């Protein structure tokens, strides 16, 4: 198997809230893939995409239930920062945008510095600089 591209699909309860959160954090909307059922954003220079579908749209299409991200981890994406200062600034932006800091910025392991946050639907992201 040699995939042409990979992206992620998350379930959310409110598209407008999700759109506002990721826009406030500075992620670039993937305009052609926005509709009444989903919003989509680019998450890196390599254009990794995460689609955020309304939960009641996504579950029938995957033939099963999505986990509740507030109580269980689906997957934790890691976002790499260019510097400690950039990472600290990102940490300051999460809560005003509507997210939650799970673990404040801290040093961990040799040469690693990072924090963990959740979006309004509980999806976790690990942000670090190394």
Automatic annotation (TrEMBL):
Q: What is this protein called?
A: Glyoxalase/bleomycin resistance protein/dioxygenase
Tell me the PROSITE patterns matching this sequence.
Answer: VOC
InterPro entries xrefs: Glyas_Bleomycin-R_OHBP_Dase (IPR029068), Glyas_Fos-R_dOase_dom (IPR004360), VOC_core (IPR037523)
Species of provenance: Chitinophaga pinensis (strain ATCC 43595 / DSM 2588 / LMG 13176 / NBRC 15968 / NCIMB 11800 / UQM 2034)
Q: Which residues form the VOC domain?
A: 4-130
Q: Which Pfam families match?
A: Glyoxalase (PF00903)
Membrane-spanning residues = none
Q: Which Gene3D superfamilies match?
A: 2,3-Dihydroxybiphenyl 1,2-Dioxygenase, domain 1
């Amino acid at each position: 198997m040699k995939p042409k591209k990979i992206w992620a699909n998350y379930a959310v309860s409110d598209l407008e809230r999700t759109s506002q959160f990721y826009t406030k954090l500075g992620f670039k909307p993937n305009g052609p893939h926005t509709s009444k059922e989903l919003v989509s954003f680019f998450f890196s220079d390599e254009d990794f995409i995460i689609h955020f579908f309304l939960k009641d749209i996504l579950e029938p299409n995957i033939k099963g239930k999505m986990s509740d991200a507030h109580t269980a981890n689906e997957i934790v994406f890691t976002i790499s920062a260019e510097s400690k200062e950039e990472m600290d600034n990102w940490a300051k932006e999460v809560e005003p945008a509507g997210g939650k800091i799970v673990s404040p910025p801290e040093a961990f392991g040799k040469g690693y510095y990072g924090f963990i946050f959740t979006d309004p639907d509980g999806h976790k992201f690990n942000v670090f600089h190394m």
